[in-house]
Write a structure and sequence with these properties.
Elements (H helix, E strand, L loop, with lengths): L7 H80 L9 H11 L3 E8 L2 E7 L15 H11 L12 E2 L3 E3 L3 E2 L9 E7 L6 E8 L1 H10 L1 H11 L3 E7 L1 H5 L14 E4 L6 H11 L6 E7 L2 E9 L5 E7 H52 L14 H79 L5 H55 L4
Antiparallel strand pairs: 1-2, 1-7, 3-4, 4-6, 5-6, 6-7, 8-9, 8-12, 10-11, 11-12
Keywords: Cell membrane, Membrane, Transmembrane, Transmembrane helix
Protein name: Methyl-accepting chemotaxis protein
InterPro entries: HAMP_dom (IPR003660)
């Protein structure tokens, strides 16, 4: 079964359309992955910028807080030495709580506690605050606190690795933290511990640390994080996490150093893998971790970046909002690309349609030439190879037309001449037949008369005897032979001439048939 072939125009349009669609799909796929990478890079870049800002804010706050806290440490050292001077050489048991309250009020400290040794522990013996009496670091499970007090008794310097903010052989200060003896209401104080050489007690002056907390709340990391969340709508939340608390949650219950799982900011978009990320960061296996997770209808980008001081900055961003602008740009680019390709397709289709129309004109001309129409011409205007082809075909058609027309004229002449030749040959044959018949009859009559005359002459000469009689009779016989031969030759020549004229008549008839056939063939051409 013969399949129906598509036209060149249909093939071109189909192939062009398929090619353009493939370009659109490939370009769209490349654009999709490129935009996806760009979104990831943009999100990562913004996250790193935010983390750097948070880390810088933490560093600046810590520097300022440390400076303020150091000033407080020096003040507490001054208070402790003055208290020791005022108490003098009194033993611990002779010092009264009333005396301590008077000193506290005079110096402007929040409270004073005197620690002394009891059995295998160091406890609060005298204090301005009754709740401090009986307080022991051992009782609350803070072994390092107990060991630090022992070092003071032994006149040894407490190492900074123990979490102290200031340390000498006679004194050390703890960071601002919640009081362990105020269980009902969380209260934050700055504590210092001083042991005067030669005494059996440790002086513990402490002051409320409201000024430091107010400073931290006003210009610290939490304020910076809140400003970032307000300024950048794509920020879901930012937090500063303590990976050690993720590893050991019991650290959040200890007084020193004061640790919380979330040191600053918020951490509400929790996931089971976050703990493992914290452990890997803590072990040094990972430097930075990021992943995307859906929480309900929210698609959140999460990044964990470790800091130099061992904390981890956690950033949660609205991935949908971040990718919206780039996705919109991508859609615009893809749509504009498709529009451009469609415009190119229509322009190309229109251009090829013009070419196809011209090709159809040439094909129609060739088909007319196939049907022997030598008047077929195509009119293609413009400057192109198809115009040159059309002009060449038209010129060839003119040449063929002229050649066939000339051939037909010559065939007409040949046909007419062949008819005349055939007629003349026919007449000549008849005349030659009459002439040959008449000539043959005359020659035969003459031969008969000559033979009769020579026979009579021979009979007469036979009667007479003369010298050359035999020779004369032989010559008479020779004359008879010559007469017979000449008569025979004349007859043969007449017959040959008649055959020649007949052959000429046949050839003229054949030539006439050929010219007729040629004229019939010429008549099939349209001139």
């Amino acid at each position: 079964m013969k399949t129906k072939s598509r036209s060149l125009r249909a093939q071109f349009l189909i192939r062009t359309f398929i090619t353009l669609m493939m370009i659109v799909m490939i370009a769209g796929t490349v654009q999709f992955f490129y935009i996806k990478q760009q979104v990831a890079k943009d999100v990562q870049r913004k996250s790193l910028i935010l983390s750097e800002s948070v880390e810088q804010g933490i560093a600046e706050t810590k520097l300022a807080s440390t400076s303020i806290e150091h000033q407080i440490d020096l003040r507490l050292l001054s208070y402790a030495t003055r208290i020791s001077y005022r108490l003098g050489d009194q033993p611990l048991q002779s010092i009264t709580n009333k005396e301590l309250k008077s000193l506290s009020k005079e110096l402007g400290v929040t409270g004073i506690t005197l620690f002394g040794k009891e059995k295998n522990d160091i406890v609060g013996v005298k204090a301005t605050d009754p709740s401090e009496i009986g307080f022991s670091f051992k009782k609350i499970g803070y072994t390092i606190g107990y060991q630090s007090l022992e070092k003071l008794y032994q006149n040894e310097k407490v190492p900074y690795t123990s979490g102290v903010t200031y340390s000498t052989r006679t004194m050390y200060a703890l960071p601002i933290s919640q009081s362990g003896s105020h269980g009902n209401k969380p209260t934050f104080f700055k504590y210092a511990y001083y042991h005067a050489p030669g005494t059996d007690y440790i002086i513990n002056p402490y002051i409320e640390a409201n000024e430091v907390y107010q400073f931290t709340n006003k210009v610290g990391p939490n304020t910076l994080i809140n400003k970032m969340e307000e300024k950048f709508p794509f920020v879901k939340e930012i937090g500063v996490l303590e990976p050690t608390v993720f590893k050991s949650p019991e650290l959040a219950k200890k007084l020193y150093p004061p640790l919380k799982k979330v040191a600053y900011g918020k951490y509400t978009y929790k996931d089971s893998k976050d703990k493992q990320i914290m452990l890997d960061i803590l072990k040094g296996r990972k430097s930075m971790t990021e992943y995307i997770k859906s929480y309900g209808h929210e698609k959140v980008y999460k990044m964990f970046i470790p800091t130099k001081d061992g904390q981890v900055i956690y950033i949660a961003l609205d991935y949908s909002q971040l990718s919206k602008s780039l996705s919109r740009s991508s859609i615009i680019l893809i749509v504009s690309g498709i529009a451009s390709l469609l415009a190119l397709f229509f322009i190309t289709a229109r251009f090829f349609n013009e070419i196809y129309v011209k090709i159809r004109l040439i094909i129609d001309q060739i088909k007319r030439l196939e049907s022997r129409d030598l008047t077929a011409k195509s009119n293609i205007y413009g400057v192109s190879e198809l115009t040159e082809l059309s002009e060449g075909l038209n010129s060839m058609v003119d040449s063929w037309n002229e050649s066939v027309r000339h051939t037909k004229q010559q065939a007409d002449k040949t046909q007419k001449l062949s008819v005349l030749l055939e007629a003349e040959a026919s007449n000549s044959v008849e005349k030659m037949f009459e002439m040959s018949t008449e000539s043959t009859m005359k020659s035969r009559e003459q031969l008969y008369e000559i033979n009769e005359f020579l026979d009579d002459l021979k009979e007469i000469l036979t009667v007479y005897n003369f010298k050359e009689k035999e020779k004369t009779l032989e010559k008479i016989e020779e004359m008879k032979i010559v007469a017979n031969d000449r008569t025979y030759a004349t007859t043969n020549m007449t017959i040959a001439l008649s055959d020649l004229i007949k052959s000429l008549q046949g050839q003229s008839a054949e030539l006439s048939e050929i010219s007729n056939a040629l004229l019939k063939s010429m008549d099939k051409f349209k001139l």
